[in-house]
Structures are given as C-alpha cells and as structure tokens.
Amino acid sequence: MKPTELTSKLQGIVGQKFVSDDFAVRWSYSMDSNIFDSINPTPPAIVVRPANIEELQKILFLASKTTTPVYVRGGGTDAGGSRGERILESILIDTTRMNKIIEVDEASQTVTVEAGITWGKLNKEVEERGWRLGFKGPYSGYSSTVGGSISVQSNGYGSARYGVCAEDLMNLKVLLPDGQILQTGSAVNPAARRFYRYCIGPDLAGIFVGSGGCFGVIAEVTLRMYPKSVKAAFGAYGFKDYESCQACYYRWLKTREADHIAWFAEDGLEVNAPELSEDGYISLLTFAVEDQTPELVDARRRLLEDIAKEEGGEALDSEKYAKGDWVYRFELLPRWAAKIGQWQWNCHMIPAGDALDDLKDILSLLKAFKSEIAKYGVKHSTVSIAHKNAGHVSTSLYYDQSNPEVVSFVKELSDKYAERAITKNGGCNYWIGKMWYPYTIMRNPVYRETLTRIKKAIDPSNIMNPGGLALPTDLG
Amino acid sequence: MSVASKRILKRRKGSRSLSDYKDDVYLCARCGYCRDMIRARDKTAQVCPIRENTGGFESYTARGRNIIARGILEGKVVPSSLSTEFIDSLYACTLCGSCQEHCLALDERSWSRFPDNKFSDHKIDILGINEAMRSAIVEKGVPPGTIRQVLRNLSLHGNAEGLPRSQRDAYAEQFGFPVKRAKDERCKTLLYPGSVASYSERSQRTIRAIAVILRGAETDFCILGSEEEDSGADALRLGETGLFEELAQRNIQLLKKYGIKQIICLSPHDFDTFQNDYPVFLGEQWTELKIKVQHYAETLLNLLRNNKIHPERRFSKMVTYQDPCYLGRINGLYNAPREILRRVTDLAEMKLTRHNSFCCGGGGGGLWHDPLDKPRLETERAKQACATGAEIVAVACPTCAKMLETGLSSIPQCKMQVMDIAEILLETMSFINEPASL
C-alpha cells in the first residue's frame, strides 16, 4: 500500500490531526538520543499518535494486513539504538498520547498505566496519592515512558533495592502484531485484579520485557507501589584505594538497604568532582536511603555508614556529593551531556563481586585511547550503579556531536568498550540494540533458535521492529 | 532575575542566521525535557503548551525543531521544501520560553553536588533557534499568509494590523490632561505604549492609568505620539530580521533626536527587545545612547517604594496574576507586579505560575496567526485563572490582556474580568477620576 493511502486509512482511525507523512514531521522523529541515530538519522514514512488501546489495535490490524513495518516510540530517549535499521516505508507509533493512569488499586498496592505515561508524571501522581514507586525511572526519567522502559529493561533510580523496572511489573496488556490483545499475569482471569505476575501459567510478560518492541506493542502496564517515604538520608565516602572501595560497594549491595548506590571511578571524579581527585581520592561511593518512617531510614543509614567506616571510607559532605543525585534524579545526564555536547552511554551489568576487575579493565581501555581521547576533546566518566546483586557499570563519553570525526571516534571507542565488557569481562548487556549487535552471535544457539521460533510464531510477517533482535535470519 | 534568564539573555545573538546557532543546536542532548517534564519535586508540568494542545508531533516541540534545524545545517533538510504543515507548526509556537526555561542543559540552580563546575557558557537558546528557522522561512518567501501580512503592515504602517499612523496616539485623548509630545517639548523619560497597546481599545485604559499615576507622582514624561515607531520585536520574532533592523534604526534616530534617556515600556515584548536585542544587533550605536529601559511594573513599584504615590484604600476584589512570558520567564521579572498587587489587594496565585506559567497564546505571532489546529491557549489559561476563584485576572502586558479577554469570553460561567496592574493600582488612589485637578 502506498504511504498516502495508508496515511488516509490511519487518519480514519485516529483523526487527521494525529497522523502525518510530512517530511519535516517525519524527520523530527529520525533521532533518539543515541549515537547511532546521530550517524544515520532515518525518518519513518508515517507517524501516528493513537490516543487509546482501541486505536492502537486498529493501527496494528492495518499494519498487519498491509505487512507494513511498525516501530514503537515512547519518550524518544533510547540511548542504546534498540530500533532495527529503520525501513523507510514504515509506520512509527508515538505512544505519548496514551499517558493516563488507569487505576491506582490500593487493595493490590498496584498502579496500572497506559504505556506512554512518563516516569515523571507517574512518580508525581503516585506520590500525590500517598504511595511511591520502587524503581523510579531511568536516567532520562522525566520524559521517558514506562512502556519504553519495559521494552529496553531500564535500569535506574531505585535499582539498588528494587531492581530494574520490570522487577515490579505485575501485569502487561500487549497488542500483538495481528492486533489481538494479550493480557499477562493475574488479569488473565477476568475476575481477578491486576495484582500478581507469576500465575495462571508461564510468565508471558517476560517475552516482552527487553524485546525492543519486536513482539508487539505494550499498551498497559501494572506496577507495584510502596508506602510513601517520609525521610531520606545520604552518605558519601572517599576512597584512596580501589580494593577498599570494592569491599564497601559489595557489602553495601549485599545489605539491599540502599535505594541508590553510585561508585564514581577516578575518571568520574576528574570530570565531576576534581577537588576530590586533588585530595588524592580515586573513588567516591554514595548512597541514598528513603523509607516510610524516620527510624527505618536512620537504621538503614547507620548500617551503611558502619560498613563504609569498617572498609576505610572517609566520610565526605553528603549534602554536596550524594544528595543531589537523588533529589535531582533524572536531571543529571542532560547537564553532563551539555558540558560538551552529547553523551554516549556505554553500560553493562557485572556481578557485584566482579565490579572492580571490570572497572579496572574499562579504565585501562580508556587509558589505551588516552591520546585520541585528548585529541578529540572527549571527556569520560565511569560509574557503577548498584542493582541488587549486580553492578551496572557505565562509561559516559561526552563529546562534540557537531564534529563527524569526533562522532566516528566515539562510536569506535564504544564498540571497543562493548567488546571488552562482553567478551572479556563476563558482563551482560541489558539493552538490546545496535551497540550490542556484534555480540548477539554469542548467544547460546539454543537460545537463539528458541528466540527465532518465538518471533516467527508471534510475528510471522516480521513487521514489528524488523532487525531489532539482530537474529541471524531474515526474521527478527 | 533567575539564573536561567540571566544565562539565556547572555546568549542572545545579533543575528538570526541558523549557522550562528550551530553551537546551540548541537548542545541539545535530545533528552526531551523541553517538551515533557512533569516532576514530583515541584510544580513543573505541561512544559510545551503547544504540544499539549495540537497534533503534538515532535516537530511542534523544541527537541523536534532542533533535530530539523540540525538537518538543515547538515544539508539533509532543505528549508524551501518545508511544507505548509510544518511552517504552520513553526509559527504556532508562541515563543513562550517554557522549553528554554526547562531545558536542563546546565541549569545550575539545582546542581548542588558539583558546585565547582561553572556552567555560565551554556544554555541552549531555543527561542533563537526557532527565530532563526523562521528567518530562513521568511528568506525563502514562504511564511504563512497571516504572517506575511503582519510583516507588510509593520513595514508600511509601523504596526502589525495596518492601522493608520494618525490614530496611533488616539489614546492620549482619554488621559483627561494634556500630555507632553517629544516633538514639542524636551523630556528625558518616554512612555512607550508600543503598537499593540496604542491601537487596542482595551489597553487605552492601561496607558491612561500609567499616565495618570506618573503625573500624580510628578514624573516628567512624554510620548512620541504619531511619530512612535514599532520596536521591531514582532518582526524579529517572526523571522524578518531586515525589517527589525530597519525599525530599530528608525527608533534610534527618533530617540537620539529627542534626547530620550529612559523608556518606560508598556509591552514586555518591546521592553525585551529594547533591553536585549538592540544592544546585540546595534552595538555601540545603541549603547552610546545610554538609554535606560524599564517595564512600567518596575517604574510603578519604584514610585511606591519611594513614597511618590500612596494607595489610600484596598482594592476590594480578589485578584490573580498572569505572568507575561517576556516579563517573567524571559527577563526574570516575577516580583515587581506581584509586589504592586500585594500592596493593594489579596493575590490568589494560579497553579501554573512564575517560571511554570502558562502562555496566554499571543506571543510569537499568536495574536494574529491562526493555523487550523492552533490550540486555544487563551481559553485554557482563562480556565486556569477562573479556577482560583478570583474576580480579576491582573495582567502586565497588552497582549495578555487581549488574549485573556478573548479566552474569558468563551467561558460564560466565569465572570472574571481582566484588569491591568496599573488600573488596579490607580483604583486605590484618590486622584483616580480627577487627573485634571492634579
């Protein structure tokens, strides 16, 4: 079907106002916030903004009937390039009109939302109702959507205690490529509330978590809520040797008592707190704790403080070095980025006990490229953010995105990082996306074959984010 | 003035060539906070009023337009090929500055952890980028018809609506006392109503109120009368840089000729342009005149603080206040109008206020340009004002006055009225109806 004909049919579904095949409109969707789109911006053929699940269903009926590729976009903040190489003759579904809270169910302590709601809005509305979220959102959280985060397995604020976004996921409502609506979790039973994930049978939600929109469109999400916090406490500790810092980091994680833990390595200090480097510190460890009573907060804070002291951490000004991370969460990356121009975020997961070896290896990689890094004016900051039993290690590269040579170098350095993290250090990528495609071949062959079968079964025409899974077949 | 306002004003450029905005375009990290930043820790919400109320595509937002601007700079998007749909969306933006205010590229206000970083060089001039894109559209001769007409009127008649120059100072007949004309008597302080207020029946009450108060305070001031020229603010905002420069030259000649040393502006848009655009576009030609530019809210507040005027009774109606974008967000002047109001009445703030304030819809060409899906911001803002329960919505801008009156007229159940802060202040003074006896 020609785009104009398709456009007209889509207008019949959502109204003329919410469909466009205009070049400038399409071009404005050609980039998410990742380096891959900077290098190769690709506009879709049509952009459509459905308002509800009924419109979404009709769009997928149409796409399925016409075998038109579909890409789904939430806040447009995807840092990993999870979209496959975009086929020009495609529909991009912008989900951000589907942004309502459907239900705050106090009986089941859950909140159900449309997938296009932003983390900023969700956090605010939940807190206004006297609750809070465990996982509060990824680093771009004000503007990024809940559906997008489920699709890319976001890590972020609250992960130290509550895990990634999907670990509080109870139910999903997903539009399959043929337009059918799949409900997962307890609400498969029409008589049941959306309160429990693991029931009825296999956990089908898991197929869609981290799938990058390759199996369907997430339309509704049910998340667990927690009692609202009344107090928060913070800690910041400087370390002059890495081994002590690793010991403290490991023990902090093991307690599961911090809501947020960040380990800034030496390059992170040079960029963000040079005065600490000058004082001889090579690492900064920070924590944030919040809870429903002051006594709980104080008890958890003391536990973490005691560990830090036992491991030789020197207490620093927590107001200065730890509080901002938590209070102004979601606000750090844009500022960091704009110091120079843009950030390329390289990140992976590593077991808590292996964080130091991995971190040292990443730092040695950066040192190997020291002269090029200086030549191209790239700054870097390596940080490990805790995620329960794992460390989320990331090196942010801040670079001038107006200079193609610099962009090319940053891409090369990112590739090296990914190679090192996955092949040598035993890390794992939690996003799918272009950064990791060269290493998807390493997936276990049975895993790969099973994934291919699932893709074929759910999306036989391969219309959902074609190429997004980087499977070595024409599917996915 | 807020830190954000200071920083962005520092980045104002004396050009609207897109290539001069390259640094700004490439500073954007595409986080999307310029279009959507609702946060629990404060009242920030509805960052982009246009996105919230239109088709809402990325191209309506600062981030999307930045991506298009980048495409133009990289030769991947050709301005002359841009569609009417996009151009309409570009001109649907009211340049309210909310996106710029909420852009987190190095806003140090909440940057407490690493205070040693000095970010004074960076803050993305989003409005400048928009105006530069409009400038490219004007250069290609393809702005919307209404905008073309406005620019033609500004060029030929010195006002956007093409009204006769001879009627420009008709407002002075309402004063009830003779007012100095610069051409007849020398004076150093100029009351500059500007194009919108001069021809607006509604704003004539405001001009009169200011004039009566100034006279009551024994301030020596004059007007330019029918000689007054448009400041060029609208020409610049609409992308006609050449016309702006021409109007600015005409103004400079007039101000020089009459030895004006202080301009009291009625419109925040004119105030902003005299204060911030003239210095960067005209350089020494402007700065050597050493003209002090003030918005009348500051003037009136100074008179109050210096006991030059004396409110004698409370204004009896509950008042809410609309922050004009170009007074508040763009120039950081939030307190002066509020202090005036608080001295004479009770003020009930709207939910979206100060740096989170919601635009009346009239800026950036919104007063005239009416594309198909243009959101009715004036109605939305009027609803927000009505929700306070106040009887009066106070304004400090003739454009806000016009727009909010229109907005309120579409909400019959709300009996709220629009009054200017000067009108409210005047009502509390004894010489309210007796200017001739002063």
Structure write-up:
The complex is a heterodimer of chains A (476) and B (438). Chain A is α+β, with helices and mostly antiparallel strands. Chain A has three domains: 3-96, Uridine Diphospho-n-acetylenolpyruvylglucosamine Reductase, domain 2; 98-227, Uridine Diphospho-n-acetylenolpyruvylglucosamine Reductase, domain 3 (2-Layer Sandwich); 231-424, FAD-linked oxidase, cap domain/gating helix (Vanillyl-alcohol Oxidase, Chain A, domain 3), CATH 3.40.462. Chain A has 19 helices and 17 strands. Chain A has helices spanning 3-14, 23-27, 35-39, 53-66, 119-128, 146-152, 159-162, 205-208, 242-255, 266-272, 274-278, 294-310, 318-327, 332-340, 355-368, 370-375, 404-424, 437-440, 445-458; strands at residues 19-20, 46-48, 70-73, 91-94, 101-105, 110-114, 131-133, 169-175, 181-183, 217-227, 231-239, 260-264, 283-291, 314-315, 342-351, 379-387, 390-399. A seven-stranded antiparallel β-sheet of chain A has the order 14-11-13-12-16-17-15, sandwiched between helices. In chain A, strands 5, 6, 7, 8, 9 and 10 form a six-stranded antiparallel β-sheet that branches. In chain A, strand 8 and strand 9 form a beta hairpin. In chain A, helix 1 (3-14) packs antiparallel against helix 4 (53-66), helix 9 (242-255) runs antiparallel to helix 12 and helix 15 (355-368) runs antiparallel to helix 17 (404-424). The mean pLDDT of chain A is 92. By secondary structure, chain B is mostly helical. Chain B has three domains: 3-143, no CATH class; 165-304, 3-Layer(aba) Sandwich (Rossmann fold); 311-427, Rossmann fold (3-Layer(aba) Sandwich), CATH 3.40.50. In chain B, 42% of the residues lie in helices and 6% in strands. Chain B has helices at 3-10, 22-27, 49-53, 62-73, 84-92, 98-102, 126-139, 145-157, 194-198, 201-216, 233-237, 241-257, 268-282, 284-287, 296-305, 335-344, 377-386, 398-409, 421-427, and strands at residues 180-181, 189-192, 222-223, 262-265, 292-295, 319-321, 392-395, 417-420. In chain B, the strands form three sheets. In chain B, strands 2-4-5 form a three-stranded parallel β-sheet. In chain B, strands 6-7-8 form a three-stranded parallel β-sheet, sandwiched between helices. Chains A and B meet through helix 2, helix 5, helix 13 and helix 14 of A and helix 2, helix 4 and helix 5 of B.
